[in-house]
Amino acid sequence: MINATGNRMTLEIARQSRLAKAIEQSQVAISTNRRIQRPSDDPTASARIATIRRAQSDGDVWKRNIDLGASLTAQADGVLQKLNDRLARAQELTIEGASGQVPQNGRDTIAAEIRAIAEEVDSLALVQSSLGQPLFSTGQPRVLRFGGGAEFAPVPSSADVFQYGGVSLATQLETMASAIEGGSRTALDAALAKADGLVTHGADVASNIGNIGARLDRLADSQASRSVDLRAERSGLEDTDLTTAIATLNAQQLTLEAAQSAFARINRRSLIDLLS
């Protein structure tokens, strides 16, 4: 009888200890708003959370790359606007100089302005990015990875922008200026065709950069949407449902209090009472 009573007391003490531990875990879950404190609390959910955490970390990298790419593309777009403005002005000047109605001194003045435009174009090719590097690389364009298999250069190379027909824009403009100075009909006709080609080239490059910018915008939207989805899924797995947790805690506390009260009453009984 005594052994049986002792065993019951030992079992009751262990049960109350488990209840106290469960209450402690509930309190921690409520105070930290984290349902899972260690992987053993829910191995399946913990494994999924670890996967989501890695995806979120990767997403942060992709977002930084997208932001950087968008910044570089926007800067390149601004440069192309200036370039195309200068090329359009050079075309106007070439048409004027090739009209046959401008005297030599007027053609010389026009040629001088075209050469000034050539210098401006050369300076645009040397623009620095926010990274302190040439915006338009002299070699292969700088490729960035944006996640989801998207890997491309946000800005074309210097050759792609500032060369036409394998020759620099500045050199092409210098040829046009010389043609206007010389006054040869054949050279002037070639200069007019070249001016048209330069304007078309500039528009094509600007369109390409615009397409890249639009693609980066779509990637940014996609990444933002995925980030929201991952955050929501992780929260559902990891965060505490406060309503349920508080109700569980109250029930656990009531159960423990009742068990402690009953245990105290039993413990006050005398050995004679137990044996009777």
What features would you describe in this structure?
This protein has 276 residues and is mainly alpha-helical. The chain has two domains: 2-33 and 240-275; 62-225, Up-down Bundle (f41 fragment of flagellin, N-terminal domain), CATH 1.20.1330.10. The chain is 77% helix and 4% strand. It contains eight helices and four strands. The protein has helices at residues 2-32, 43-97, 104-124, 158-162, 169-182, 185-238, 242-268, 271-275, and strands spanning 144-147, 150-152, 163-164, 167-168. Strands 1-2 form a two-stranded antiparallel ribbon. Strands 3-4 form a two-stranded antiparallel sheet. The model has no long low-confidence stretch (mean pLDDT 84).
Biggest sheet record? 2 strands, antiparallel
Helical/strand content category: mainly alpha
Mean pLDDT: 84
Low-confidence stretches: none
Number of strands: 4
What distance lies between the first and last C-alpha atoms, to the nearest angstrom?
A: 10 Å
Radius of gyration: 38 Å
Write the SSE topology.
Layout: H1 2-32, H2 43-97, H3 104-124, E1 144-147, E2 150-152, H4 158-162, E3 163-164, E4 167-168, H5 169-182, H6 185-238, H7 242-268, H8 271-275
Antiparallel strand pairs: 1-2, 3-4
Helix pairs in contact: 1-7, 2-3, 2-6, 3-5, 5-6
Short description:
With 276 residues, the chain is mainly alpha-helical.
